Amino acid sequence: MLQAMQATAECPKPVPQKAPLLTVDNVTLRYKTSNLLITATEKVSFSVGESDRFVLLGPSGCGKSTLLKAIGGYMTPSSGTIHINGRQVKRPGPDRMMVFQEFDQLMPWKTVLENVMFPLLMARKLPRQQAEALAREYIEKVKLTRAIDNYPHTLSGGMKQRVAIARGMAMQPDVLLMDEPFAALDALTRRQMQDELLQLWEDTKFTVIFVTHSIAEAIKISNRILLLSPHPGRVKAEVVDVDKIRHDAAASAELEQEIHNLLFSNEPGHRE
Fold first, then answer.
1. Residues 146 and 237 in one domain
2. Residues 1 and 91 placed together within one structural domain of the fold
3. Helix or strand or coil: residue 236?
4. Which of 15, 161, 199, 212 lies most in the core, judged by the most C-beta atoms within 10 Å?
5. 3-state class of 76 per DSSP?
6. Domain of 223?
7. Which is it for the CA torsion 179, 17, 46, 60, positive or negative?
8. What is the predicted pLDDT for the residue at 16?
9. Locate the ABC transporter domain: which residues (predicted)?
10. pLDDT (tens digit, 0 to 9) for every residue of the chain, 272 residues total?
11. Measuring CA to CA, how many Å separate 76 from each of 28, 57, 80, 166?
């Protein structure tokens, strides 16, 4: 059954089996609107291990995307700290690459190949010839070799997201950050992209932090799920070892119902 795990400094943090690659320690995030100070998350703590498929799950308004931006270095916590490989996150860096929901994240005047190469060249990570070879490798991994010379306006929504994933992974970051990347796709394409993401993970075992508000999607793609309560986002529970039930339809359905009940109740918990 699910057991309580509150997001407070006194409570133990989730500990992955491997040494943590990334730690979020009592992070509170606030931002200003024209006339309000909004608290997006409050004292959120968790850790992510190497090769984890870690999902931040919760309803709209729980601070999932805001938390992902802070991990990416685009926001500074009001309190608490974020560390990756022992270094405190203070700004964006090539060790954390983001894939967003929007389809317009690609540069329309550049081809698929040029879009994937661009961050490599801007970061001066590799000479042009090696950058092109690496970009071609990841374009092949996301099954877009035939569209390598196409421009974004000729691509479907799913193909654009494949380009964005290839671009992020070509940088070979420590963590790939994905902010509801499939939410704007139709149901069939979304399911296909979930399958392809899992296959890509099987091939490379990259570390990903994935934001979604879909319980079914979280169960399908994760090995760990962190549940956040809304307004402001606090850790409500963690679900671990999701891989053990992924291919069991009955167990997956039972877990989906438990998570739904938990997110919309006042009884937090933790499932082993």
1. no
2. yes
3. strand
4. 161
5. coil
6. 1-95+174-266
7. positive
8. 46
9. 22-255
10. 343 333 333 444 554 455 799 999 999 999 888 888 888 999 999 999 999 999 999 988 888 999 999 999 999 999 999 999 999 999 999 999 999 887 678 999 999 999 999 999 998 878 999 999 999 999 999 999 999 999 999 999 999 999 999 999 999 999 999 999 998 889 999 999 999 999 999 999 999 999 999 999 999 999 999 999 988 899 999 999 999 888 899 999 999 999 999 888 764 444 44
11. 9, 21, 10, 27
pTM over 0.85: yes
Q: Could you tell me which residues are beta bridge partners of residue 84? A: 22, 87
Q: Are residues 91 and 182 in the same domain?
A: yes
Which residue in this structure is represented by tokens 């929007």?
A: 102
208 by Cβ neighbours in 10 Å (0-12 / 13-18 / 19+) ranks as: buried
- Same structural domain for residues 207 and 80? yes
Tokens of 182: 């499939």
Indicate the burial class of 226 (C-beta count within 10 angstroms; 0-12, 13-18, 19 or more): buried
The residue whose two tokens read 């490599």 is 120
User: What is the Cβ-side half-sphere exposure of residue 238, based on CA atoms within 13 angstroms?
Assistant: 19
d(CA 27, CA 246): 30
* 241 and 259 housed in the same domain: yes
**Domain end position, chosen among 150, 172, 194:** 172
In a domain, 271, yes or no: no
Query: Looking at the 3D structure of the chain, how many domains does it have?
Result: 2
